[in-house]
Amino acid sequence: MTTNILKTLSLIFVTSLICSCSDDDPADTGGLPDAIVNSDPAGSPPRNIIESWAGHNNELFRQYFDNNVAVYYSDDVARPLEWPFEFLSKTTEHANDVYGMFGIENRLYAVFHTSSPAPYVATAFDSQSENRNLFDIGFNGYEMSGTNTDNILLSVSKIVETSSNGISGSAAGDVWGDTFSQIFLYDAYASQQMQADADRIFGQYNTATANFPRENTYWFRDWYYPIYSNYGGGQAFGNFFRIVAQYYPTTGNSFSHDMNMGEFVHFFSGATGEDLLPLATEAFGWNDEWQDQLITARADFPTLNYPFEPVVYITDLTLGATITVSADNGNGPEGAEGSLKLIDNDLFSKFLVGGLDTNNINFWMQQDLTEAAVVNKYNFTSGNDAPERDPKNWELLGSNDGTTWTSLDTRTNEVFTGRNQTRDFEVDIETVYKYYRINITANYGSDAIQISEWRLYYILE
């Protein structure tokens, strides 16, 4: 009796292991319907999938799965090849624990070929991968080499960066470029006690430079590693992803816009609990534009948890204002590109009007504030395309009756170096006005003017 009970318990234990962590034999599944061969528990990844991405159309058979990962090999991959299973599972589990969950299923699909022309990486937000967190790469030989494990981690780092915490995209991508993978690789190796590989990555990236945000920036040496070593390792970066997902503006399940440098430093300070402006100054240099961005970020996101004193108070005077233009879009002010888009607080909509005289643009736009106020700062955001439509020369005027105007600021030969770029302009005045008008006298050669946003502010220092 006792012997039978022990046998039964052993069978249950072995069965549970098979359900949660399983190697697969393609010979058992090829050509047979799931109803015959698939005894997997509910929610298991499919035993075979057909590639529908990157020009591939191969049928792939599952080699292994657990709660973290599903591994598929193409027919040309030599078997047995099992080292990727544990490495991938530990990598994914660590990524979930540190950087936040990604996707509804929260499982990583790893596809391997003997060779592949270029890595393919997709997230749960990509329909081409059937909304799976997935990468498709080629082996460089079959051994557990630094090249093979690095390529795996580079793919996982991109998935983490662009889908963690249920938000699509990388808010910090415009600032850190492709460098986040540097600290991700180091942390992934360190977390698995693969110290020789962690040391190799340290040596590789500690001397690597980038040309952003300035020439000869040592991202790993001067930014990532000091944060990693002084503020809790990978958890500091996990905190960054979490508070960005929590506080940074989104539209649907995507970030509304990219971070600027001031916001980047503000959110990293919130992630570490310490003001990182001194570290950022040493790592990247610092300038007046970034300082203005940091001040604005502290006003826009005042609840981030680190000690800082608000140095200015910013009032957005455009809130509640009405807009008038000398010529509107053909579909009217409420059209998809009508004048109301000038003050809708959406940097990715735009106002567009055409049919102007290229030799004499003579276009104006006017805000009627809710009450008379001092404006000492304003900004424009350029459109998403066609830089020839950008304003080049203009004048800011103020009035209290809409008839008599006083010149407040004149700009010539201004350039927007990027699309959807916001540029700030300061004005040294102390008089209150109810109406503010911009007269645009020249653009860059088009018969059209386009602007994504025009905002007026009062800054109290």
From TrEMBL:
Q: Which SUPFAM superfamilies match?
A: Galactose-binding domain-like
Gene3D superfamilies reported for this sequence = Galactose-binding domain-like (2.60.120.260)
Q: PROSITE patterns recorded for this chain?
A: FA58C_3, PROKAR_LIPOPROTEIN
Q: Which Pfam families match?
A: F5_F8_type_C
Q: Where is the F5/8 type C domain?
A: 307-459
InterPro entries given in the database record? FA58C, Galactose-bd-like_sf
**Name of the protein:** Discoidin domain-containing protein
State the organism's lineage.
Bacteria, Pseudomonadati, Bacteroidota, Flavobacteriia, Flavobacteriales
